[in-house]
Amino acid sequence: MTGNPIHLRASEGGAAAVPTLYEEIGGMPAFDKLAAAFYEGVRQDPLMWRMYPQDDLDGATWRLGHFLAQYFGGPSEYSAERGHPRLRMRHNGFHINPEAREHWLRHMHAAMDQLDLSPIHRQQMADYFDRAATAMVNTFEPSPGAEADS
Ligand code: HEM
Asked: Against a cut of 0.70, is the pTM above it?
Protein backbone atom coordinates (compact mmCIF):
# COMPACT_ATOMS: atom_id res chain seq x y z
CA MET A 1 0.00 0.00 0.00
CA THR A 2 2.77 2.43 0.83
CA GLY A 3 5.29 0.85 -1.58
CA ASN A 4 6.66 2.96 -4.39
CA PRO A 5 4.94 3.09 -7.73
CA ILE A 6 7.15 1.74 -10.53
CA HIS A 7 9.46 4.29 -12.11
CA LEU A 8 11.44 3.32 -15.19
CA ARG A 9 15.00 4.57 -14.69
CA ALA A 10 17.92 5.09 -17.06
CA SER A 11 20.13 3.13 -14.62
CA GLU A 12 19.82 1.81 -11.10
CA GLY A 13 19.12 4.87 -8.94
CA GLY A 14 19.55 7.03 -12.06
CA ALA A 15 17.30 9.62 -13.67
CA ALA A 16 13.75 8.55 -14.45
CA ALA A 17 13.26 7.66 -18.11
CA VAL A 18 9.86 9.34 -18.23
CA PRO A 19 8.94 12.47 -16.28
CA THR A 20 7.73 11.67 -12.80
CA LEU A 21 5.36 13.60 -10.61
CA TYR A 22 8.44 14.57 -8.60
CA GLU A 23 9.91 16.40 -11.59
CA GLU A 24 6.63 17.72 -12.88
CA ILE A 25 5.75 19.56 -9.69
CA GLY A 26 9.19 21.14 -9.27
CA GLY A 27 11.57 18.59 -7.75
CA MET A 28 13.05 18.77 -4.26
CA PRO A 29 12.19 22.42 -3.58
CA ALA A 30 8.51 21.59 -4.01
CA PHE A 31 8.72 18.66 -1.58
CA ASP A 32 10.71 20.71 0.93
CA LYS A 33 8.01 23.34 0.78
CA LEU A 34 5.26 20.74 1.16
CA ALA A 35 6.86 19.18 4.24
CA ALA A 36 7.59 22.57 5.83
CA ALA A 37 4.02 23.75 5.25
CA PHE A 38 2.65 20.48 6.65
CA TYR A 39 4.65 20.90 9.85
CA GLU A 40 3.59 24.54 10.16
CA GLY A 41 0.04 23.24 10.52
CA VAL A 42 0.98 20.33 12.77
CA ARG A 43 2.77 22.66 15.18
CA GLN A 44 -0.47 24.56 15.73
CA ASP A 45 -2.50 21.43 16.35
CA PRO A 46 -2.17 20.09 19.91
CA LEU A 47 -3.65 16.68 19.08
CA MET A 48 -0.94 16.19 16.47
CA TRP A 49 1.99 18.12 17.88
CA ARG A 50 2.24 16.13 21.10
CA MET A 51 3.02 13.03 19.04
CA TYR A 52 5.90 14.59 17.11
CA PRO A 53 9.58 15.01 18.08
CA GLN A 54 9.38 18.67 19.11
CA ASP A 55 13.16 19.01 19.40
CA ASP A 56 13.78 17.56 15.95
CA LEU A 57 11.40 19.39 13.66
CA ASP A 58 14.10 19.85 11.02
CA GLY A 59 14.76 16.11 11.06
CA ALA A 60 11.06 15.28 10.80
CA THR A 61 10.66 17.75 7.93
CA TRP A 62 13.61 16.16 6.12
CA ARG A 63 12.20 12.65 6.60
CA LEU A 64 8.70 13.48 5.36
CA GLY A 65 9.88 15.63 2.43
CA HIS A 66 12.45 13.12 1.25
CA PHE A 67 10.17 10.13 1.70
CA LEU A 68 7.47 11.77 -0.42
CA ALA A 69 10.02 12.94 -3.02
CA GLN A 70 11.27 9.37 -3.32
CA TYR A 71 7.77 7.91 -3.42
CA PHE A 72 6.78 10.19 -6.29
CA GLY A 73 9.84 9.34 -8.38
CA GLY A 74 12.65 11.50 -7.01
CA PRO A 75 16.07 10.41 -5.76
CA SER A 76 16.25 7.62 -3.16
CA GLU A 77 17.93 9.69 -0.47
CA TYR A 78 15.28 8.77 2.08
CA SER A 79 16.06 5.05 1.82
CA ALA A 80 19.81 5.71 1.72
CA GLU A 81 19.46 7.51 5.05
CA ARG A 82 16.62 5.61 6.74
CA GLY A 83 16.51 2.18 5.05
CA HIS A 84 13.29 0.59 3.84
CA PRO A 85 10.37 2.91 4.69
CA ARG A 86 8.21 0.27 6.50
CA LEU A 87 5.89 3.14 7.24
CA ARG A 88 3.15 1.26 8.99
CA MET A 89 5.66 -0.34 11.32
CA ARG A 90 7.37 3.00 12.00
CA HIS A 91 3.99 4.45 12.98
CA ASN A 92 3.14 1.64 15.42
CA GLY A 93 4.42 3.63 18.36
CA PHE A 94 2.02 6.52 17.70
CA HIS A 95 -1.64 6.65 18.66
CA ILE A 96 -3.22 6.96 15.19
CA ASN A 97 -7.01 6.82 15.32
CA PRO A 98 -9.43 8.05 12.61
CA GLU A 99 -9.39 11.51 14.21
CA ALA A 100 -5.60 11.74 13.92
CA ARG A 101 -5.92 10.54 10.31
CA GLU A 102 -8.36 13.38 9.59
CA HIS A 103 -6.01 15.91 11.17
CA TRP A 104 -3.04 14.58 9.22
CA LEU A 105 -4.95 14.80 5.95
CA ARG A 106 -6.24 18.29 6.73
CA HIS A 107 -2.68 19.54 7.27
CA MET A 108 -1.45 17.81 4.14
CA HIS A 109 -4.26 19.34 2.06
CA ALA A 110 -3.42 22.78 3.46
CA ALA A 111 0.23 22.12 2.59
CA MET A 112 -0.72 21.12 -0.98
CA ASP A 113 -2.59 24.44 -1.22
CA GLN A 114 0.82 26.13 -0.86
CA LEU A 115 2.07 24.47 -4.06
CA ASP A 116 0.94 25.50 -7.48
CA LEU A 117 -0.37 22.05 -8.40
CA SER A 118 -2.31 21.18 -11.52
CA PRO A 119 -5.61 19.38 -10.80
CA ILE A 120 -4.22 16.04 -12.01
CA HIS A 121 -1.13 16.21 -9.78
CA ARG A 122 -3.19 17.30 -6.84
CA GLN A 123 -5.58 14.39 -7.39
CA GLN A 124 -2.75 11.87 -7.68
CA MET A 125 -1.18 13.09 -4.46
CA ALA A 126 -4.47 13.34 -2.60
CA ASP A 127 -5.42 9.78 -3.63
CA TYR A 128 -2.15 8.43 -2.31
CA PHE A 129 -2.39 10.39 0.95
CA ASP A 130 -5.93 9.20 1.52
CA ARG A 131 -4.97 5.52 1.12
CA ALA A 132 -1.69 5.80 3.02
CA ALA A 133 -3.32 7.62 5.93
CA THR A 134 -5.95 4.88 6.16
CA ALA A 135 -3.18 2.28 6.28
CA MET A 136 -1.54 4.13 9.19
CA VAL A 137 -4.61 3.93 11.48
CA ASN A 138 -3.69 1.54 14.29
CA THR A 139 -6.32 2.20 16.99
CA PHE A 140 -9.93 3.28 17.48
CA GLU A 141 -9.29 4.43 21.04
CA PRO A 142 -9.81 8.18 21.64
CA SER A 143 -6.69 10.34 21.51
CA PRO A 144 -4.81 10.48 24.82
CA GLY A 145 -5.04 13.94 26.38
CA ALA A 146 -7.79 15.00 23.94
CA GLU A 147 -9.90 16.43 26.77
CA ALA A 148 -7.17 19.02 27.39
CA ASP A 149 -7.70 20.42 23.87
CA SER A 150 -11.33 21.40 24.22
C1 HEM B 1 -2.52 9.20 9.58
C2 HEM B 1 -1.96 10.01 10.47
C3 HEM B 1 -0.47 10.10 10.71
C4 HEM B 1 0.10 10.45 11.89
C5 HEM B 1 -0.64 10.85 13.16
C6 HEM B 1 1.53 10.39 11.71
C7 HEM B 1 2.45 10.66 12.69
C8 HEM B 1 3.80 10.57 12.55
C9 HEM B 1 4.77 10.85 13.59
C10 HEM B 1 4.41 11.28 15.00
C11 HEM B 1 6.00 10.66 13.06
C12 HEM B 1 7.37 10.86 13.75
C13 HEM B 1 8.02 12.08 13.14
C14 HEM B 1 9.47 11.83 12.77
O15 HEM B 1 10.29 11.63 13.68
O16 HEM B 1 9.81 11.84 11.57
C17 HEM B 1 5.82 10.25 11.70
C18 HEM B 1 6.84 9.96 10.85
C19 HEM B 1 6.69 9.77 9.52
N20 HEM B 1 5.51 9.75 8.83
FE21 HEM B 1 3.67 9.86 9.62
N22 HEM B 1 1.81 10.01 10.42
C23 HEM B 1 0.62 9.82 9.77
C24 HEM B 1 0.48 9.47 8.45
C25 HEM B 1 1.49 9.42 7.55
C26 HEM B 1 1.33 9.23 6.13
C27 HEM B 1 -0.03 9.06 5.43
C28 HEM B 1 2.56 9.25 5.57
C29 HEM B 1 2.99 9.10 4.15
C30 HEM B 1 2.22 9.33 3.12
C31 HEM B 1 3.52 9.45 6.64
C32 HEM B 1 4.87 9.54 6.48
C33 HEM B 1 5.78 9.60 7.51
C34 HEM B 1 7.22 9.49 7.32
C35 HEM B 1 7.97 9.31 6.01
C36 HEM B 1 7.79 9.58 8.59
C37 HEM B 1 9.28 9.44 8.96
C38 HEM B 1 9.60 7.96 9.13
C39 HEM B 1 11.03 7.74 9.56
O40 HEM B 1 11.93 7.70 8.69
O41 HEM B 1 11.28 7.59 10.77
N42 HEM B 1 2.83 9.56 7.83
N43 HEM B 1 4.49 10.21 11.41
From this structure: yes
